[in-house]
Design brief:
single chain; alpha+beta; 2,3-Dihydroxybiphenyl 1,2-Dioxygenase, domain 1; nine-stranded mixed β-sheet; 3 helices; 9 strands
């Protein structure tokens, strides 16, 4: 059901510093900062040959990233995103296996302008999973 690894998301305490590290120390192609108010984050994507890194920083008072950074002040891996062909088919299959879809269970539009869902980390060995329809 899952396809390619779309991205690994890393919560960071300083978005510009993290982007500069990827740009200057690692020589990576760093995209522009974009606010995603519906998700409570500001993101910057790092383009790699085979996938992307998504740098996450809190946006707004209800950002889920703020809580993550309180527990992990240096930042860290927040979630992994996999591609799926049909997000509704994937959601229904996962729910039938007992997996919990976060939120209301309906896809939201993600940072790439495509439908996304998040799956409870307790159902996937402690890892928050995002599914993105491609």
């Amino acid at each position: 059901m899952i396809g390619r690894l779309n991205h690994v998301a890393i919560a960071v305490p300083d978005l510009e510093q993290a982007a500069d590290q990827y740009r200057n120390a690692l020589g990576a192609k760093v995209g522009a900062s974009q606010d995603e108010p519906e998700h409570g984050v500001t993101v910057i994507f790092i383009e790699l040959e085979n996938t992307k890194i998504e740098l996450l920083y809190p946006f707004g008072d209800k950002s889920p990233i703020a809580g993550f950074l309180e527990k992990n002040p240096s930042g860290g891996i927040h979630h992994i995103c996999y591609e799926v062909d049909d997000i509704f088919e994937a959601r229904d299959h996962l729910k039938s296996t007992g997996a919990r879809v976060l939120g209301a269970g309906e896809p939201k539009i993600g940072a790439h302008g495509k439908p996304v869902l998040f799956l409870h980390p307790k159902d996937f060995t402690g890892t928050l999973l995002e599914l993105e329809q491609v």
